[in-house]
Amino acid sequence: MKRIIVNTAAALALSLSPAYADLDLEKDELKFGFIKLTDCAPLVIAKEKGFFEDEGIQAEVIAQPNWKTLLDNVINGNLDGAHMLSGQPIAATIGIGTQANVITAFTMDLNGNGITVSNSIWEEMQYNDPALDTPTPKHPISADSLKPIVKEKLDAGEKLQMGMVFPVSTHNYELRYWLAASGINPGMYTESDTGGRTDAEVELSVTPPPMMPTVLEAGNIQGYCVGEPWNQQAVVKGIGVPVTTNYDIWKNNPEKVFGVTQEWSDANPNTHVAVVKALIRAGKWLDEKDASGNFVNREEAVRILSQPNYVGADYDVIKSSMTGSFTFQKSDVRSMPEFNVFFDDYATFPWYSDGIWFLTQMRRWGQINEAKSPTWYLETVMKVYKPDIYLHAAKLLLEEGLIEKSEVPWDSDGFKPATDEFIDGVVYDAHDPIGYLNSHKIGNKDPAGLTAN
Amino acid sequence: MKFKILKALDVAGLQVFDPVVRLICGENPPEQFRKILLFIGIPIITFLIFIGIWTYLAPRHTTKAGEVPTPGVVKNAADGIWVFHVRENQKAEDFLLEGPAREKALAGVQARIAELTPLASAARTKLGELETASKSQIDQQVGPLQEKYNALRKQTRADEKAREEALIAQADSLPIGDAKARDAFLAKVSEHEVKSGTEKQALKDFKSTIDAAYADKFPEMESVRIQYNAYEEELQYLSKRLDYLTEGNQSVKISEGQSELVDLQSAFLTAEGGKATLKAAEKVLKQEESIARIAESSYSRPWTFPRQIVRSVACVFVGFFIGSAIAIPLGVLCGISRVFMAALTPLIALFKPVSPIVWLPIVFIIVGGFISDPETAFVHPAFLSSAITVALCSLWPTLVNTALGVASVEKDHINVARVLRLGFFSRLFKIVLPSALPLIFAGLRISLGVGWMVLIAAELLCSSEGIGKFVWDMFNNGSSQTFAQMFVVVFVVGVIGLLLDRIMIVLQRSVSFDGAPTAI
Amino acid sequence: MSFLEMENVSVGFGLEGFRTEVLRDASLSVEENEFIAVIGFSGSGKSTLVSMLTGLLRPDKGVIKLKGKEITRPGPHLGIVFQNYSLLPWLSVYGNIELAAKKVFPEYSKAQRKEHIERYIEMVSLTPARDKKPGELSGGMRQRVSLARTLCMQPEVLIMDEPLSALDALTRANLQDELVRIWEEDKRTVVMITNDVDEAVLLADRIVPLTMGPAATLAESFPVTLPRPRDRTSLNTNPEFKKLRNEIIHFMTAMNKEAKMLRVDRGLSMPDVKPFDFTAA
């Protein structure tokens, strides 16, 4: 196996220019876009708690109708930056969908998604696996008990339909991962099949998050993977059961990022750093805990998020996932302090390894339709993920005494250590994307030994 | 006087109020009362009946997606939308307050916070107690049920297994080739399957009683929860106001900045050495700049519904004017020239039925191509795109009507023009256009109605601030208020549409010379 | 040579094969300041005749000359009073007349124009209705506006297409007197189309019957030698008047019978074609 050799010191060498230290803003009235999901919290909190103002930024935080429009608005300059799906900057940079150089220097949160199935599918799953038929079944729940249902449907000439929010969304990859981990083929993207349904045993389709519960109830889909509050909505309305969260699929997986265009960042380097500063503070505020480990600011955050111009869902619905617990069934409310991670575990750092994981998934499912060399993976992710900007911001915050030294991975090479904390236990080592691809049963496999072309 | 008012009402298409005016003037009261009852009373009664049916039916139709809001709930939602607007305005105002006014407002806010805090914490305690109580009540109810269910399920599965085993044993001893015995066995298997199905259904039914127990409503708890949430929301708002009246306040920020500036200036005066002096000078300038920036800044207000309504109306008029500016000249050309009409007919036929949803992305791309930097653009591209989409969808009635109006100018009027040997333009402006005006305005009226309907879809799609965006945002919120908010939108859109139509009726009547009645 | 001369004029409508000839070989000559009445049944081609005299329609054959010059297109010098008034409904009485005055006398100053217009309004006794819209006027008043509009252009010939036929008898009588008065005041060459024999005899110097269509033509004219001013009340008992009237009526009815017989003989029903106006557009 060929390993990527990274000149880490060179990649992340900090050369703080005096201009940066002073942060002469190029632009002080900024517009940020977000989608109405609870993980937009860092943006909203940075505005509402005055962190942007502290940096001299007048921010407007504007809800966007869907991920596509949000990305378009960032690219065409209607927005300065936005809350984005991790896959969006990467996909835009390599030209899946819209081609544009979108970069990120800040990861907004970890985890925060769930997979919900309809009541009847849940009953059948319980029937297939009696261990699930208790008020509080054991987690993680794999798709094993779903497999017979898929088979039965296939025999009847039908396919189970499931919803996800965007072709390059974490939800798509997580749902695929969850299904494939139990040997269910979620379908491949090919050049002619941009819907990703080739060879599918379960068909996935794009549905906007707020439509998910409605479409599930209407029976057009039998399950979906989406962010909050749309899993909790299903429970509250009694139309579905969340079976697993993405925390169980991949512990502490990256979820949303703060994306801007390369051009914007080049034109407003100091502003970009100032924005990241404010966002880091917002993340820290969101994850602040008291001595006994309870979140101290989350209730206030939920109160703010439930305003109609932000997430706007009912306070109690948002609260049920954001204050450290998650409601799987009415009988099953679990403590999940790490369901939403906004700061801890170096959550906000833009890890190259996170970006590479998304690239491997895009390759695995065929959105990248040819084999790529390991160097390509690294070069691509370095075009998108900008830890140097993050570290500039962090350094300034450290100087101002607003964060602790231990809260930032100062000397990291941009790679998290290899981990097997996936639902199927497969080891992910970002230094070896090809090896990782080949360790899965379902999905594209590439020959080792490709070199950059 | 009386006749002036009556005439004005007539022109405005408000003849229903005619009897009211006559009644006030004391003209034949019984007759006027009868007319008032007929033209005003009956519509009001119809509306009340409508509200009544709605009130009666709404709570009787619940889906899992939500409840159909009753008029009361819709009213609450409207109030909520208004409160949000008022609060945002208040924050914007607070940001700019200075001097004694600021202190007064601050004192008011602090007093209200002091008043609310104990109420909120009391409600919180109460809510906690009620939640515990309801939970234990549910547990009490569910506990034995769940046990029973578990036992039942165990029994069912054991039975099923036993039956299955018995069948296997029987099948083992089944003579090969004995059709009769095999038929009997087949019947047994089917009996077994039917039984399994019934048992499964029984289990399911039992489970639904458990679910029902979870779904038990605790009205007292719900009302305390609503109260508590209301307190907390207001406190959240007040704390934000507090911020805008103190640290976040413009005047406070400026005075802070100025005191810092004084320090910097004195530092500059006493600075020694070239480098240090330059640096001090730069700092002074930068501070001055930052103060100027704060002085210019304003509270960045979110788009509240009333502001979105105003913007939607502006947008529909911009689109309507663009559309008319295209449609009327084209219509005139089509009307006066058969060649032109023949040339345009296929294009008109092709584009007329295209839905706004199709136009919008195309328009969006084209507009985007012209506006490279939205920051410096004169109008927001999303606004312009919505307006152009409105124009594209709404110009057809005007175009067709104008063409018809121009083409069907009375022959005698044309003869007059010929006898007078009027030139092209005087013929156009003195004979053709005035003659076509009533039809043009009838077209414009339809266009404006179409535009208003199209606009909401356009705004929704391109997220241009306006009613359409409000609809989409509230839908995306998926809160318990969402459905009620949609009803509010229905009424607002309807009322504004009605007003726009009225305006057009007035215009249409003021240009119509033939006294032709206008459709209401 | 006469002032207004029409020589062997033929005109028809419709495409070849379906052609209906409306006028055939119609000739007429009018002297200056002469008042001619053309009388005919409805459908005999009276309006077509008017259209040709005013240049709104070109004949297929033959020529029409005014003062020896061929009429090729309409113009203010060929004043026409339309049967249905043709007033612009969005303009006031004053506005309607002003439109014509402005075009014909562009050299007038504002005050001159105003005076000119008001003179003609006065002439048709409409001064009180000066600012009213046509919709607010009675039929008679509208026809007077139409007349004033045409007169104000001071045309060389005044051609009136059944100007009074849409009016009730009393208004009609009234306007007839008015017409006479105006004509006396403002002498002009007049061709009036009418279907009313009394009217023709009362007003005209000469009466020209139009034979029954299709392919109508102008018959021999009846000179009216009754002295002017002619008084309508005494005229009824005037033997000369009665004689002339009877002659004309007899001529017309005979012509009508003949035409009817002709139609029966031919046993053909005419194609149902509506005249198409090529001139409009």
Automatic annotation (TrEMBL), chain A:
Which controlled-vocabulary keywords does the entry list?
A: Cell inner membrane, Cell membrane, Membrane, Signal, Transport
GO CC field: endomembrane system
InterPro entries in alphabetical order: NrtA/CpmA_ABC-bd_dom
What is one Pfam family matched by this protein? NMT1_2
Gene3D superfamilies per the record? Periplasmic binding protein-like II
Write down the superkingdom of origin.
Bacteria
Keyword presence, Cell inner membrane = yes
Question: How far does the signal peptide extend, from start to end residue?
Answer: 1-21
- Where does it reside? Endomembrane system
The entry's protein name is: Nitrate ABC transporter substrate-binding protein
From TrEMBL, chain B:
Where the record annotates domain ABC transmembrane type-1, the positions are 309-504
| Any single GO CC term annotated in Swiss-Prot or TrEMBL for this entry | plasma membrane
Q: Name one Pfam family in it.
A: BPD_transp_1
Q: Which domain of life is it from?
A: Bacteria
The record's section on InterPro entries has: MetI-like, MetI-like_sf
Q: Which UniProt keywords apply?
A: Cell membrane, Membrane, Transmembrane, Transmembrane helix, Transport
| GO BP | transmembrane transport
TM ranges are 36-57, 316-336, 348-371, 383-407, 428-455, 482-500
Instruction: Report if keyword RNA-binding is assigned.
Output: no
What family does this chain come from, according to its entry? Belongs to the binding-protein-dependent transport system permease family.
Name used for this protein in its record? ABC transmembrane type-1 domain-containing protein
UniProtKB/TrEMBL annotation, chain C:
Q: Which Gene3D superfamilies does its entry note?
A: P-loop containing nucleotide triphosphate hydrolases (3.40.50.300)
Q: CDD domains annotated for this entry?
A: ABC_NrtD_SsuB_transporters (cd03293)
Under the heading PROSITE patterns, the entry gives:
ABC_TRANSPORTER_1, ABC_TRANSPORTER_2
The keyword Transcription is annotated on this UniProt entry: no
How does the entry describe its membrane topology? Peripheral membrane protein
GO terms of molecular function: ATP binding; ATP hydrolysis activity; nitrate transmembrane transporter activity
Q: Which Pfam families match?
A: ABC_tran
Whether ATP-binding counts among this entry's keywords is: yes
Chief subcellular location equals: membrane
Q: Which GO terms describe its cellular component?
A: plasma membrane
Q: Which residues form the ABC transporter domain?
A: 4-237
Where in or outside the cell it occurs: the entry states: Cell membrane
Which keywords does this chain's UniProt record carry?
A: ATP-binding, Cell membrane, Membrane, Nucleotide-binding, Transport
> Which protein, by its recorded name, is this?
Nitrate ABC transporter ATP-binding protein
Per the UniProt entry, what species is this protein from, by scientific name?
A: Cerasicoccus arenae
